[in-house]
Amino acid sequence: DPWLDVVDHWERLVRVSIEALGVPKGELLQPFQAGGALRPDRSHLFKGRRQLTEHVVREVAGVGRSPIILHGPRQCGKSSFLLHLSRLLSPGILPVYVDLQSQAITSSESEFCFRLITAAIRDLRGVCPRVQQLPKVERAAFQPNPYPIFEDWIDSLLESIENNGLLICIDEFEKLGKAMERGNMSTAIFDELRHLSQHRDRLRFIFC
Predict the structure, then answer these.
(1) Within its chain, how far is the Cα of 185 from the centroid?
(2) How far apart are CA 60 and CA 42, in angstroms?
(3) Which pTM was predicted?
(4) Alpha-carbon distance 144 to 73, whole Å?
(5) What is the pLDDT of residue 196?
(6) 37-47: buried (b, 16+ CB within 10 Å) or exposed (e) per residue?
(7) DSSP state, residue 152
(8) What is the pLDDT of residues 141-169, one digit of tens each?
(9) Of 28, 79, 86, 144, which sees the most CB atoms within 10 A?
(10) How far apart are CA 37 and CA 151, in angstroms?
């Protein structure tokens, strides 16, 4: 059969190429990670998303102030994308990652505001030295009315990052709806986020 000779020829070529590349023999570990977000320390495994990144960059840099909605089925890589934005975005846009999957952050509006601010300081202190000079965030300061102190902290953060833009990425955003069903939070949080996005020129939101 002439096809057997063709297959045998290609098999020899593949074997020679593998030996030349120095590919280890035996079972190779599967680098693909399923079931959890790909953390930033595994950036070498994060591939693609170029078109999505370009779209987000255009939206963030645009003159509009509408929030960006990132929607898709579970396990399609949304959280991984948000966690890697710091190296995907253009200089001058500083992302902050907030995960609402934690029950604590949606236990009350004061806790939501407190933890969003602490997440921002956590993600920004390494890239903006002035963030480290901000006073310590006190949980008690956000009770019982969190919004005045929340807005003051947002303004302090924007001042500390100078001319950079602040991009707050809120993952598992639907958990806010669940918290409202439980009576832990009210629709006032939506009014507050909308107010901030409309009246802070260098602040944008991504809701995932």
Answers:
(1) 23
(2) 25
(3) 0.76
(4) 37
(5) 94
(6) bbeeeeeeebe
(7) H
(8) 999 899 999 999 999 999 999 889 899 99
(9) 79
(10) 30
